[in-house]
Structures are given as C-alpha cells and as structure tokens.
# Entry
Amino acid sequence: KLFDFGTSLSLGRLREPERCLQGTFAYMAPEATGLIGRLVDARSDLYSLGVLMYQLMTGELPFKELNIKRLLYQHVSTQPPFPTSINKDLPVELEKIVMRLLEKDPSCRYQSARGLEHDLKRFVDGDRGFVIGENDQTLTIDYYPRLVARGEEFSRLRESYVLAEKK
# Structure
C-alpha cells in the first residue's frame, strides 16, 4: 500500500537521509512544519493539494530547496513564483486558485474542499473572471492570541495545570 508518494519514491535511497525525506517535506503546509504556532487541520491538506497542482501546471515544485531546514523555511515564509511566470499558457483563474491554496496563513486559504470544487467547476464550465473563493465557507474560527512579556504568568499557569493533572 502506498501512503506517501515522497517516501515511496525514495525507498531505494535510504543512505541519503535528506533526499529520502525531501518528497514528503516538499508538500508540507506551513503549520505542519512545527515552525509556527498553528494547528494542522483539513486546510493543511488543501495546501498540499496546492503544491501538487502547482507541480502539475508548471512541471516544477514551488520550492526546490534540497536542504530540509531551508525548504521548510520557504514553506513558512517565501511566496513561490507565480505559475504563469513558468507556464505562460496557464489561465489566470487557475493561477489564482493555486495561489490561494498556497497561502501561508490557513485562514487565507480555501476553508473547505467544497469551496475549491466550486471554483474548479466554474472554471471547467467556461466561467472566466469570477471572484476566487466567493462561495467558500469559513468552517474554522482562528484565534491565536500571543502572550507577550507574560513568561512568568504562563509558567505559573503551566505549573497549576501540571499540579491539577497529578491530583
């Protein structure tokens, strides 16, 4: 059974650990890297689908870094080249769809596969110039408050939690 194409393509190169893992990391959503404080959810899969669509439309991955740390950093912080800069024949609507899938912030991506499906269907049906994501539903409320200069208070809360768990 295949569960991960990146791993399956690399089974013969186990002595080159960075190359073995590269296929998997090439499709990893920013929040899945562990470098940002966001939860992984269905929108992470939509990001990975965006990487796959980008690759199918351009013949290239959006990020081609061989060093895993730099590759993960690119997923978190670097915007990939627009697909039309690589494939001039690509319709702008498809480019907009893919770039929305590749948004760093999950709340800026498609929120559901249904929203993506709606836009792809409009494109296939010949609709042009439509607003990307206008029928997408927000399914998740994103609220990630940051504790700034509250290390001492946070430590006390954590200690209280640990003590409560022990009881």
